[in-house]
Amino acid sequence: MLSLIHARTFLAVIDEGGFRPAARKLSLSPSTAIEHIRQLEDDLAAPLLVRLRGQVAPTAQGAVFEPLARALVSTAERAHELITKAPLRVAASSNVGIYSLQPGIAAFGKVHGVEIEPWIGSNPAVADRLSRGLADVAVMEWWDGRPGFKAQPWRREPLKVIVAGDHPWACRRSIAASELVGTRILGGEPRSGTGTILRKQLGSLADRLTTVDGYGSTEAVKRAVRAGHGISIVLASTIADEIGDGLLAALDIEGTKLEKEISIISTSSLPKQSSSARFVAFLVDGP
């Protein structure tokens, strides 16, 4: 099979008029350039270059191959340009995409000059989008371990109990887990993984909690909590503005460390220089 590298060397020898100047142009040794041409001639079963009056020129067969080689190299360069400059498609679950990921997206785009095409939706929708090849990278609140993908931890986000600014608990820093029993706990986006964490950390007590689902999003939950419809348990990053303005108060549950691991998911094998791999490394390791 024809080698693109060998075709580039062939064209450089013609354009530069010899093996030594071609080797300098390509940062190769002259012997390597000669070996590239030998392998190319073996592949095509024909002599391609001949020395004439101290210079190297194409043979009749080489003259036939030259425009094809130029088209091959040009097509490869165009393909590389289109692929590397294509937008990086990043899908993120709602809370992550709205409250946590935006600074990282902006910083990566500024440092690497890569355009990012974000998509924000529910966790199941993000997982489905990644599986169908509609996203290059996903950042989610959970991952179900489906084959062909690799999940890496990005950060651990604390979960906080939130109450309205005028709630009796608003002046407290923490509550006992038992105090949650009998209190309306408002649920936002379904299948975000928060319920699983509560069951794991609170054990049988979690079965005694009164949850009210159907609010659909953390933003709706925050509005409902502010209006006095109940309390909720949300990611700390989602309430910074409301806490600062005194509209909500955040509390811990005594003796319990509620955290949610945010994961970055990509295909199992990524070329190291791909924009996807660089984005993952940028988030995990920092700039």
Descriptive keywords:
D-Maltodextrin-Binding Protein, domain 2; Arc Repressor Mutant, subunit A; alpha/beta; 12 strands; 287 residues; rod-shaped; 24% strand; two-stranded antiparallel ribbon; 3 domains
Itemize the secondary structure elements and their pairings:
Layout: H1 4-16, H2 19-26, H3 30-44, E1 49-52, E2 55-58, H4 60-84, E3 88-93, H5 94-100, H6 102-112, E4 116-121, H7 123-131, E5 137-140, E6 149-164, E7 174-175, E8 184-186, H8 194-202, E9 210-212, H9 218-226, E10 231-235, H10 240-244, E11 248-253, E12 259-267, H11 275-285
Parallel strand pairs: 3-4, 3-5, 7-11, 8-9, 8-10
Antiparallel strand pairs: 1-2, 5-12, 6-10, 6-11, 6-12
How does this model look, in words?
With 287 residues, this protein is α/β, with parallel strands linked by helices. It folds into 3 domains: 4-84, Orthogonal Bundle (Arc Repressor Mutant, subunit A), CATH 1.10.10; 88-154 and 261-285, Periplasmic binding protein-like II (D-Maltodextrin-Binding Protein, domain 2, 3-Layer(aba) Sandwich), CATH 3.40.190.10; 157-260, Periplasmic binding protein-like II (D-Maltodextrin-Binding Protein, domain 2). It is 43% helix and 24% strand. It contains 11 helices and 12 strands. It has helices spanning 4-16, 19-26, 30-44, 60-84, 94-100, 102-112, 123-131, 194-202, 218-226, 240-244, 275-285, and strands at 49-52, 55-58, 88-93, 116-121, 137-140, 149-164, 174-175, 184-186, 210-212, 231-235, 248-253, 259-267. Strands 3, 4, 5, 6, 7, 8, 9, 10, 11 and 12 form a 10-stranded mixed beta sheet that branches. Strands 1-2 form a two-stranded antiparallel ribbon. The model has no long low-confidence stretch (mean pLDDT 92).
